[in-house]
Amino acid sequence: MTETRGRLANRRIALGITGSIAAYKAIELIRILQTEGADVRVLMTPSAVEFIGTLTVETLSRHPVDSDLLSLQGDGRIGHIAAAHDVEAIVVAPATAHWLGAMANGLASDTITAACLATSVPVVVAPAMDGGMYSHPATQANVARLREFGYEIVDPENGVLASGMTGQGRLAALTRIVDAVVEALDGAPAAVTLPAAAMPAGFAAQPVDSTPAESAAASRMTAPSRNDLAGRHVVVTAGGTAEPIDPVRFVGNRSTGKMGIAVAEEALDRGAAVTLLLGHHSVEPPDGAHLVHVETVAEMQAALRAFTPPEGPLFNILIMAAAVSDFRPRHVADRKLGRGHGLKLELEPTPDLLAETAERVKAAAGAHGRHPVLVGFAAEVGDLDRASEKLRAKGVDMIVANDVTEEGSGFGTDTNRVTIYATDAPPEQLPMLSKREVAELLLDRVVVRLGGTVRPDTAGAADNAPNPEAPVSVEAGR
Ligand SMILES: Cc1cc2nc3c(=O)[nH]c(=O)nc-3n(C[C@H](O)[C@H](O)[C@H](O)COP(=O)(O)O)c2cc1C
């Protein structure tokens, strides 16, 4: 199903991927464009195919990739000419120095240049390369020529490059590229008929009206500012980890995943692309989220690391709501242990994933300043005194703390009473709310932090809920 609610709803976009080290980011770009409602078909240069292959791209886009200029489509049409006429915009990301040169000179030696030459729709180009390559007069002249064609250039950013050096050459943030596509199409009427292409199941939008709850969520989404997370990628961790003792038993916890899943649902409803890193859970994750299932702390760590490569995190917001074990058995038996004479279990501490991820994200951001919003959940017992210390020690922007021993506020409940600790505001104690309402108010604060606006319909989402725009006067633990 194609998303019908985003800023690119019903739009047909061609994405051209060229042979840059940043080609892997185009995979995520497909997903964000789809979350914005676009039907994305992909053209690739042979070099890009060398870098990332076509399987993932074809699976995600639900269209065959056109990378061979000299072969015809299955229906006998010429691929790049069909693309030139079937789409409403072409975005080339990443664009190599070589491709810029070919395009500037009208050399139709790959399907992307050929489609750009044949089309009359807007073209958005996001270059990515080594800083020296980008600043070279030849590249600059090519970029200037493309601007003369009326192409929108999304300038690369300053930062650490694949070579380890710094300079201007990093592919622009994907949200900037998506914004440029939206802007390029602004004013052009949206296509009325949708092609048969569907979003991949893992990235499908939530159904609009299959249950009353979903209908309510969908109608709320028609509110003017419903899309305040559109173009953002939110990674949420949820559920509990399970550390094996032997092939049968594990050290686990009582997490059901409800809180993190509520955050994922809320983020989806607000237009975000959502990846859910999901441990043990007993509630259904939302259809629209891209699911990554994890079992142990080590698997959660690997999943988080995959989204925080050295050259920068692949998300705008990270919300870590999973209950991650603090300990794991030092030795795991490879056979089921018998009752025998009992069992002495030696436990070792697990890595602190919140602190580690914050450190990685900030290290990558060092060169270019801003970093994604980082939020951790802290399950406390009794008072929440440790939460402010955690906020500082973990290096995150917000800690959402709750007392899991309080009735209605622990594992498996539908409600939660939390206090939000933030680096830029006094602690804010929320009343007992449904987990979905907690998610909503939390994301309101995250949106403000991202520099967006808060949806007007969320103030008063619950009785006594603080107005997110009003000064905060409540104290922690009161
Ligand atoms: C590991 C590696 C990374 C590269 N990254 C880039 C890059 O980021 N930008 C770029 O302009 N060229 C890069 N190149 C060079 C291009 O791959 C090369 O110029 C290729 O011919 C581009 O082909 P295309 O423009 O047809 O895709 C890289 C080459 C290698 C081996």
Tell me what you see in this structure.
The protein has 478 residues and is an alpha/beta fold. It folds into two domains: 12-185, Flavin prenyltransferase-like (Rossmann fold, 3-Layer(aba) Sandwich), CATH 3.40.50; 206-458, CoaB-like (Rossmann fold), CATH 3.40.50.10300. It is built from 15 helices and 21 strands. An eight-stranded mixed beta sheet has the order 12-11-8-13-16-17-19-20, with helices on both faces. Strands 2-1-3-4-5 form a five-stranded parallel beta sheet, with helices on both faces. Helix 1 (25-35) crosses helix 9 and helix 11 (258-269) packs across helix 15 (435-450). The radius of gyration is 24 Å and the shape is elongated. The two termini are 47 Å apart. Residues 189-225 and 455-478 have low confidence and may be disordered. Flavin mononucleotide binds next to helix 2 and helix 5. Flavin mononucleotide (FMN) is lined by residues 18-22, 45, 47-48, 96-99, 110, 128-129, 133.
